[in-house]
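Workshop exercise sheet. Pairs work together: one partner reads the sequence aloud, the other fills in the structure field after running the prediction. Swap roles for the next sheet.
Pair: D.N. / O.F.
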Amino acid sequence: NTEDDLHLNNSFGDAGLISPDKEDISRILTVPFSGRIRGGMRPGKKIIIMGIIDPEPDSFDISLNCGHSEEKDDEELTDVALKLSARFTERQFLRNARVSGKWSEEEAPIAYFPFIQDQPFRIEIHCEHQRFRIFVDGHQLFDFYHKVKSLLAINMIRIVGSLQITKLG
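Structure field:
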């Protein structure tokens, strides 16, 4: 355990590990949240995000990023392996990626919009060899094929927007 593991992104106050100590959970899971994915992503690994949508939500984003930067300027250069964006006005759950500073085309179509204001949710991101599989409340919503080639380089998660996080693992 390094000091970096314990204090991740000072620009957001005390963000922390993806599996924090129980007594620190409310302090650590504040939004905006930035945390380390220990060992990066690999096939078979999954990330579970549980939380509650705000009473009057606008949007929220969940990003799986490569690398970690203290510098705001460098944040634009970070590869984003997967960015999930829930837009409540349009009732869309968008996804895309940024590789070498360029965003891929946003993927939009979904069968239904799974999020309800002021209600709990559970998002699971399953990493497979070719793609991420995204589940919301136990229902598979879509696949997102990898744009970032090195899965192990995907070592940060960032969550911002109209939600509270209750559990992250």
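Discussion prompt: Residues 3-6 form the longest helix (4 residues). What would you look at next?
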